[in-house]
Specification:
Largest sheet of chain B: none
Structural class of chain B: mainly alpha
Helix content of chain B: over 70%
Largest interface: A-B, 60 and 58 residues
Number of domains of chain B: 1
Strand content of chain A: 15-25%
Number of domains of chain A: 1
Order of helices and strands of chain B: HHHHHHH
Number of helices of chain B: 7
Helix content of chain A: 25-40%
Distance between the termini of chain A: 120 Å
Order of helices and strands of chain A: HHHHEEEEEEEEEEEEH
Oligomer: heterodimer
Number of strands of chain B: 0
Strand order of the largest sheet of chain A: 1-2-5-4-3-12
Radius of gyration of chain B: 15 Å
Strand content of chain B: under 5%
Chain lengths: 310, 173
């Protein structure tokens, strides 16, 4: 300010604001060069994010445990008994095992449906401060990943590839407020549209108010033309509550999405779907009821002492 | 002098952006976590003149726009950060109560980060970009405010020293 005066400072401020407004206008008009900028940045960031994942994983597990303290109390109590070296080894082993389980379950799911899939590791999760729900995977166009491909985990639908770069791809999660997928109810085959709501609970809107869905009904992806962005038959979620308002035009329900989005380590991108629609074949098996032990007591009358002495 | 300061500031913010994208985002912190470029830019601006503040906002905002996790249009964060950093620098400029007092500085940065996020949500709605349900947005904003209060005291000494090395006691253009 001392050298240029107030006028010069104001001029600079105006230039900066106009530049940003110019950028907004260009982006809203869909100028490709700006998309290229984001793509180029992601290409540069991908190796750093991969390295970051390796370094951060033990800490991430720690933060995850803190977040789910109530649920993992027993596990924490056990870990307290072990020494620090063993605990570190256990965390590393658990991480590898978790990824293996996720990989196995996702390949099982894809195998049952006859999908050709590409397994990928999650290398970054989008910042929630930007109000979008995305993650980045370490497979891109060089591995055959393209825009609008279905992404799934062993539990079900994770999201859809929003952008693909050379060695990474951005996946829009099913929890994203912008996410929409056509679904059908397994069994009754009623159809509706599922929308993300920013959390693990999504919203299902049926196409009319005549259909009746109930809590516990399983939803499967209906599939899209040429299987993009969605292949048919993937488990999406289970209905957790139904809104039965008499005056509403179409019935709505809350849906608990199957995948655990905060613990995604390995996902699969569906490169091509099988020739046949898997129908309801991928509906997850209902959990088996916990067996209740039955104790039978036989009462045998003992002869009294007075009788035996006689 | 200006070119050298501007270049080094840009390099510093690129490193901070890299740290945010490759480490902080991966921690999956509760309450939505925090944004290092946002907090450091606001802290940097609080120590600078309004002009340097606006330039800082431009650099950090543009980098935040380049992030894949940014839901808004390119230029959106740039605009907001220019205005936020300019406002913070304007409030702090010539006011020793803010410059000389770390506690005031921390509160100024935390409040500014919350206001910036609220403005981001409102302008996103005006631009037609979906931001999620109200409770989620509320949790993210409150969480971000709490994180700002926790993180700013940690970054303030580093940013202050770095700023002093680059600009001396007073920032000039």
């Amino acid at each position: 300010m001392r050298y240029g005066g107030e006028g010069r400072a104001r001029l600079l401020l105006i230039i900066l604001i106009v530049t940003s407004l110019f950028l907004i206008t260009l982006d809203l008009r869909g100028v490709k060069i700006l998309d290229g900028l984001r793509g180029g940045t992601q290409n540069i960031l991908a190796p750093f994010q991969k390295a970051g994942t390796t370094v951060v994983t033990p800490f991430r597990n720690f933060f995850g445990d803190v977040t789910h303290l109530g649920r993992t109390r027993n596990q924490i109590e056990k870990l307290k008994e072990e020494n620090a070296k063993l605990r570190t080894k256990l965390l590393e082993r658990k991480n590898a095992d978790g990824e293996l389980i996720q990989l196995k379950s996702v390949l099982d799911l894809a195998g049952r449906a006859g999908y050709k899939v590409l397994a990928a590791r999650v290398i970054s999760q989008g910042a929630s401060t930007s109000f979008s729900q995305t993650l980045t995977i370490d497979a891109g166009t060089t591995s055959g990943v393209r825009q609008n491909m279905t992404v799934l985990s062993g539990d079900g639908l994770v999201g859809v590839v929003k952008e693909s770069y050379l060695n990474s791809a951005l996946v829009m999660l099913a929890t994203d407020p912008d996410f929409k997928v056509g679904v059908r109810v397994a069994g009754s085959q009623q159809i509706g549209i599922l929308s993300g709501r920013g959390s693990k609970l999504a919203e299902l809107q049926l196409l009319d108010n005549q259909n009746i869905v109930k809590v516990g009904d399983v939803l499967l992806a209906r599939g899209s033309t040429h299987n993009r962005p969605f292949v048919p038959g993937i488990p999406v979620g289970v209905i957790s509550s139904v809104d039965n308002s008499a005056g509403s035009i179409a019935q709505t329900a809350s849906v608990l999405l199957y995948p655990n989005f905060s613990a995604l380590g390995i996902v699969s991108v569906v490169i091509s779907a099988g020739k046949n629609n898997p129908g309801d074949a991928l509906v997850p098996a209902a959990p088996l009821p916990t067996p209740v032990p039955t104790v039978t007591i036989y009462a045998t009358p003992t002869p009294s002492n007075s009788t035996s002495t006689k | 002098m200006l070119v050298r300061q501007f270049s080094i500031s840009t390099l510093v913010f690129i490193l901070i952006f890299l740290l945010q994208e490759s480490v902080v985002n991966q921690l999956r912190l509760p309450g939505g976590g925090f944004s290092l470029p946002l907090l450091i830019a606001l802290t940097w601006a609080a120590l600078s003149t309004p002009t340097v503040g606006a330039l800082t906002g431009f650099i950090s905002g543009f980098l935040m726009d380049l992030s894949q996790s940014s839901s808004g249009v390119i230029g959106h964060w740039t605009l907001l950060m220019i205005l936020a950093c300019y406002a913070v620098a304007f409030l702090g400029f010539g006011n020793d109560n803010i410059r000389g007092n770390p506690v005031t500085n921390i509160f100024l940065v935390s409040i500014a980060s919350v206001i910036t996020l609220i403005t981001f949500v409102i302008t996103n709605l005006l631009l037609g970009v979906p931001t999620g349900n109200f409770s989620r947005v509320l949790i993210t904003i409150i969480g971000s405010g709490i994180w700002a209060l926790l993180v700013t005291p940690l970054i303030l000494p580093v940013v202050t020293r770095l700023h002093r090395v680059l600009f001396g006691n007073q920032a000039h253009i």
